[in-house]
Structure formats: C-alpha cells, structure tokens
Amino acid sequence: MKRRVVVTGVGAVTSLGCRVEDLWTRICNGESGIRALQRFDALPYRVRIGGEILDWSTDGYIPPKEIKRIDRFAQFALVASADAVRDSGIDFSREDPFRCGVIFGSGVGGLREIEVQHTRLWDKGPEKVSAFTVPKMMANAASGQVSIAFGLRGPNTTVVTACASATNAIGDALRAIQHGYADVVVSGGAEAAVTPLGLSAFAAMRALSERNDDPAAASRPFDRDRDGFVLGEGAGAVLLEELAHAQARGARIHGELLGYGATADGSHITQPDKDGVGASRAMSDALADARLDPGAVDYINAHGTSTSLGDQAETTAMKTVFKEHARTLSISSTKSQLGHLLGASGGVELVFCVLAMRDGVIPPTINYQTPDPLCDLDYTPNQVRERKVAVAMSNSFGFGGHNGSLIIGQLRG
Q: Which domain CATH number covers 363?
C-alpha cells in the first residue's frame, strides 16, 4: 500500500514578491509583476518586458562568499527551499539525512553563466573562463546546492522537462515517498532565463507577447487578444513528508498530495497537440492515481501561458476530462500576473493551490477582457472569488510535449 504524502512547507521567489504571504496578498489583489526589463539594456530587442525579480535579497540565506559561485537560478532555489523548510518547522539535525532528499526541476539551468563565460572566452581567451562555470550552469546545481545547504543525503535528482520540470519533479518526489525511498523531500523548480539570450531565443520563435507599451496587460491567458507568453523567473518549493512522519513531529499540514499524472504528446517539439490528448490523459491519470472522480475537483491552476494554441488545447483537454463539470470548475492562470516561469512555474503554482485551499479563495486571471469562443470556461476573470476548495489540480505542459498534473487536497481522516 502506498504511503500518504503531505505538504508541510511552502516557499516562493517571484517578480511579485519573495515571501509567500506578501506574494499571495498581491496575487489575490490582482497585481502584476510584469514590467519593462531593467537588469540589462533591452532597447534593441523585439521584446522588452518580463517578470523580472528586482526587489530581493539572499541575506540570511546564502553566505556572501558563496554568492559568486552560485548562479541566479540556484540562488532562487535556495531561498525558496529555505523558506519552505522554515515554514515546515522541520529540524534536519534530528532527521536521518539518508531519508531526506531533494528533487528539483529547471528547464534551462544557468543560462546567464553560459552567456557570461562565452563572452569571456571570445573576448579574453580560454584561460579566462571561470573555474565555476560548470557548477554554476549545470541544471542540477539547484538540487545539489539545496542538499548541501541542509545536509540532505537521500535521493537527489533533477528533472529537465521544459515548462513541466517543477511539476514532474514534485511528482517524482511524491512517488519517492509513497514507495519508501525517502520520508522527506524538498521539491519544486527554479529558473532564471530572463537574460539576453533567453529573451532573444523565445522572441525569435514568436512565442512572446510584444505588448511592450503595456507590460502589466501583456500576459492575458484565455483572452481572445492574447499574443504570446511573458518570460518570467523565480522559484517555487514545497517540503513533502510521509504523513505519519509529519504527524509524529507535530507538523502543521497544508494539504495532502493525492495524485500525479505524466504523459507526452509525441507529436511536436514545441506545439501542443491541438486536441489536448496528452494533457487530458495526464489529468485523467492524476485523478485515477488520487482515486477521485472528476467532480471532486474544485479548482484548477491552469498552465494557461497566454499562447493561442496552448490555451485552446488546455481548454479542450479540460472539457474532455471533466465533461459537464468543466462548466462549474473554477479555473485561473496566475501566469497572467507573474509571466511564465518555465521550469519553475509548477512549483509556484502548487503553492498557490495550497493557499487557495487554506483561504477558500480562487486567485484571478487578470487581463481577461475579451472572451474567446474557443476558450469558454470560467477562468475567474480579473477578481478574486471566494469558494471552498477541498481539492485542487495544477497543470504544467512543456516544450517537447511533456505534460504533468498534480492533485492536492485537504487532509482527511
């Protein structure tokens, strides 16, 4: 029999806030963290906006002498994970380190470090490339740094499945605990791809919104006038525990992770299956894993990136899975406020599902002005809504055709 897994800690670093409670207040107020880019001169670029993190600090989290040795995406992971650990109240000095692991996701890894060192290589020669290049740029730097920070010696892996990375990582962490490989896992995702190369590459694909004159209105999931996603950065982390382990130490339990589904479209490297076949199967598999009927789900934090094909395919998939219940579901895309955090998005969005259950509210999809006849469900337009949430689903779909769905519910019994 599979062991039960609960969430006891949450943490997040985003452009709208780097402390969970402040962030949640701003999300529920319908604020936007998308603005004109400031960390580099974006004037020559087609796209000049993003969900860039400006007001944040590693003070009290990372020793100053270590900062230059850790890429920005791994710094985000360390801060979000430390907040999740603190929120959980766990004392790792009292735990068996080989029963505590880290499973994290990142779609891109240390992109900025690659840019910096490539420039140094060409400008100054190979002898000037930093010795810290590899440990900063590798995608597994986040999981490695988190395990080092807390002395965790259990399962330590990194998931790289583009925008599904964090969701797949949390799903893997769920299964690691369910099947007895660990009792505690820090999981989630981190990304810092708001860089010159990251921005240029996604813009070249025509994947990004070009509403440079109105950044806060650029990300508009499910709206008829959506024109692409907005690139964001940050991290989201959860601390997962086996239920009996959490109860034995008197932990506060945020919710129970009930189910996980993961599939592939198997059709195109960037475009989603137009009928959402892979996405719908991931949701159905998550429901089956949780042993829940579709009608049990109250809220879906949708992948909802604000792309024409993606939002339409996800809507079709939700209708396929939930049938008549799709019309009564509350759905929202918090990417309307943060932009798309790529491999980190699923971690942050699962945190929002936890908070929606706690407070009995559905966060809004802002910038929803003009209905799209092909996206005709209830996306909680523009204003937070009160609703009891006993069960929530979080969806993430990534380039490569990766699909992941997680189901979390209030602890019962």
A: 3.40.47.10
Shortest CA distance to 404 belongs to which of 229, 217, 175? 175
- Tell me the per-residue pLDDT of 103-145, one tens digit each, with 9 for 90 and over: 999 999 999 999 999 999 999 999 999 999 999 999 999 999 9
For residue 370, CA distances in Å to 19, 172, 313, 333, 376 come to 33, 38, 18, 16, 11
Residues 183 and 85 in one domain: yes
CB neighbour list of residue 406: distance below 8 Å, 6 or more residues apart: 167, 170, 171, 174, 257, 259, 260, 286, 346, 350, 353, 393, 394
Q: Are residues 210 and 331 in the same domain?
A: no
Q: How far is CA 375 from CA 81, 86, 284, 309, in A?
A: 35, 40, 20, 11
pTM value is: 0.98
Query: Minimal CA–CA distance to 256: which of 408, 98, 54, 40?
Result: 408
- To the query of whether residue 118 is one of the catalytic residues in this protein, the response is no
- Domain of residue 389: give its range: 260-409
Residue 1: band (very low, low, confident or very high) from pLDDT cuts 50, 70, 90: confident
> Which of these is catalytic: 28, 100, 254, 303?
303
pLDDT in tens, 330-353: 999 999 999 999 999 999 999 999
**Does 163 qualify as catalytic in the annotation?**
yes
Instruction: Based on the residue annotation, tell me whether 353 is a catalytic residue of this protein.
Output: no
Q: How many residues does the chain have?
A: 413
pLDDT score of 228: 98
- pLDDT at residue 323 in the model: 98
Average pLDDT over residues 319-325: 98
Instruction: Tell me the three state secondary structure of residue 291.
Output: coil
My answer on whether 238 and 264 are in the same domain is no
pLDDT averaged over every residue in the chain: 97
Q: What whole-number distance in Å separates Cα of residue 259 and Cα of residue 174? A: 8
The single residue of 340, 353, 375, 402 carrying the catalytic annotation is 340
Average pLDDT over residues 189-196: 98
Domain count within the chain: 2
Please report which residue ranges of 89-224 form alpha helices under DSSP H.
111-124, 133-137, 141-150, 165-178, 196-204
Owner of token pair 């100054």: 124
Average pLDDT value for residue range 57-70: 95
**236: Cβ contacts below 8 Å, ≥ 6 apart:** 10, 11, 12, 13, 14, 80, 166, 188, 189, 341, 344, 345, 346, 347, 348, 349, 350, 351
